[in-house]
């Protein structure tokens, strides 16, 4: 652990894809550390990640995507990493875009860089219902922040250490942290940028959003954005 | 209020009181929670022995029957208790999340420390 960049990947039952994701990262960003947050998987995610050479943190039971991600941020803060990148373990986020995210966040005029599927003429095909949802949150986020976000639900993001400390607070949402986090960051006065990235369609076909979850997601996000606006802006003072 | 009703209500409130004290004595209930329940028992007792108060409240809120006043406040009380538990649960879930994260990080660090020591 001597690098200043940490790549955080929450993984819940991703034994099939996690190994190739880690290898993909190794090919692109040699000077980075990779930490896998094994969120109580019941399959061989842990050994697959270890075999690929990643550092694995095992959570005692399933805490959910946001809480797993936050574990990685807390780890990054503890070990003094200057930058971190969050990405998914299902192979959806293409490691080929890592360098552009890193370059952008290292410029020091940005705190968070969000990888967008839709910027720069990228084609990404999502199911129709999902597309509508993305569009709605894009409109809401743009309206509140006055900044143009084409892909506020993207989980492919780079950040610096002040964001890492900010994310380590209890205010970080434990489930589905995306559009509401952008608004929270905006309220706190952080500088956010969006750059184009490559994304593959989710190869395993499974998604965080299935069954009744989209309805809960929609409700949770609306409520979360609403109360974020009601709160006093929280600025990290550490 | 008929005497029989009154005796019944007084008995109930006394039983609640004893059960709560006993639970706290056996350390099965934290003092923090017992306060609400003791207050409940006390309120019940007051209403049982002081029927005029119940009638006064009934006319104050415009209810037609004393019993509906009791049921109404009983329901409100149960909703509030539930809300209180929801708040407690949220706090406990958050503490549990933080603890689990800490355990995960510490375990991973200990493990990597051990492999470093061995090599």
Q: Name the strands of the widest sheet of chain A in spatial order.
A: 3-2-1-4-6-5-7
Question: What is the number of independent domains of chain A?
Answer: 1
> How are helices and strands ordered from N to C of chain B?
HHHH
CATH architecture of chain A: Alpha-Beta Complex
Q: What is the alpha-carbon Rg of chain A in Å?
A: 17 Å
CATH class designation of chain A: Alpha Beta
* Classification by helices and strands of chain A: alpha/beta
Please name the CATH topology of chain A: Spore Coat Polysaccharide Biosynthesis Protein SpsA, Chain A
Strand percent estimate of chain A: 5-15%
Helical fraction of chain A: 25-40%
How much beta of chain B, percentage-wise?
under 5%
User: How many structural domains can be distinguished in the coordinates of chain B?
Assistant: 2
Cα-based radius of gyration of chain B, to the nearest Å:
24 Å
What general outline of chain A do the C-alpha atoms trace? globular
Number of strand elements of chain A: 7
Taking the sheet with the most strands of chain B, its summary is:
none
Span of the ends, CA to CA of chain A: 24 Å
Mean pLDDT of chain B: 88
């Amino acid at each position: 652990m001597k690098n200043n960049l940490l790549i955080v990947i929450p993984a819940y039952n991703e034994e099939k894809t996690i190994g190739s994701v880690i290898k993909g990262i190794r090919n692109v960003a040699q000077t980075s550390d990779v930490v896998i947050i094994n969120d109580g998987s019941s399959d061989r995610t842990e050994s697959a990640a270890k075999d690929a050479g990643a550092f694995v943190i095992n959570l005692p039971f399933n805490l959910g995507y946001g809480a797993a991600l936050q574990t990685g941020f807390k780890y990054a803060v503890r070990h003094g990493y200057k930058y971190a990148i969050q990405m998914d373990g299902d192979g959806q986020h293409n490691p080929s875009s890592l360098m552009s995210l890193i370059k952008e966040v290292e410029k020091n005029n940005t705190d968070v860089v969000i990888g967008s599927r839709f910027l720069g003429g990228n084609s990404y095909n999502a199911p129709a219902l999902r597309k509508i949802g993305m569009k709605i949150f894009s409109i809401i986020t743009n309206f509140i922040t006055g900044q143009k976000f084409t892909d506020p639900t993207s989980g492919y993001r780079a950040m610096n250490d002040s964001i890492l400390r900010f994310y380590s607070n209890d205010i970080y949402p434990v489930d589905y942290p995306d559009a509401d986090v952008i608004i929270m960051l905006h309220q706190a006065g952080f500088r956010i940028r969006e750059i184009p990235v490559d994304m593959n369609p989710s190869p395993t076909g499974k998604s965080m959003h299935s069954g009744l979850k989209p309805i809960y997601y929609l409700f949770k996000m609306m409520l979360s954005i609403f109360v974020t606006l009601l709160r006093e802006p929280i600025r990290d003072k550490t | 209020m008929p005497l029989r009703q009154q005796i019944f209500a007084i008995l109930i409130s006394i039983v609640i009181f004893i059960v709560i004290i006993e639970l706290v004595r056996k350390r099965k209930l934290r003092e923090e929670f017992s306060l609400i329940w003791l207050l409940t028992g006390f309120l019940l007792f007051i209403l049982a022995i002081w029927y005029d108060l119940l009638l006064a409240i009934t006319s104050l809120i415009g209810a037609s029957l004393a019993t509906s006043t009791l049921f109404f406040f009983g329901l409100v009380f149960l909703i509030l208790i539930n809300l209180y538990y929801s708040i407690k649960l949220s706090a406990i879930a958050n503490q549990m999340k933080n603890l689990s994260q800490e355990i995960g990080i510490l375990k991973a660090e200990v493990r990597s420390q051990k492999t470093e020591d061995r090599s």
